[in-house]
Specification:
Elements: H1 18-30, E1 35-47, E2 50-60, H2 79-82, H3 89-92, H4 95-104
Antiparallel strand pairs: 1-2
Length: 106
């Protein structure tokens, strides 16, 4: 993605629920076990002429990623800093929903 940031996750396989795909993708990409929480938001985008949907979920975990299999680095950022990062186009479309969700959390 040209040194742009993206959120962990990926495509949902046939017969797989969104939540199961997230658990699998976090394990594959970061070797990190997660618990999937509520849906934060969703958006859609076109990739190679195909309409795709992107869903963002809250996840919880303990520890840190032990390996990076598909990414060059992982980074924790503050909420204000989230808006300053250069995201992959598809992921950039969901940032607003994530910010709104986190601003409303107690």
């Amino acid at each position: 993605m040209g040194e742009r940031w993206e959120f962990p996750g990926g495509k949902v396989e046939a017969g797989e629920r969104d939540e199961d795909a997230l658990v699998r993708e976090f394990q594959e990409e970061l070797e990190l076990s997660i618990t999937v929480g509520p849906l934060i938001g969703k958006t859609s985008f076109v990739h190679n002429g195909v309409m795709r949907e992107l869903y963002a979920y809250e996840v919880s975990f303990s520890g840190e990623p032990s390996s990076l299999h598909e990414h060059l680095q992982v980074r924790w950022v503050s909420l204000p800093e989230l808006n300053t990062l250069r995201f992959a186009d598809s992921d950039g479309k969901i940032v607003g929903a994530i910010v709104s969700y986190l601003e409303k959390k107690p």
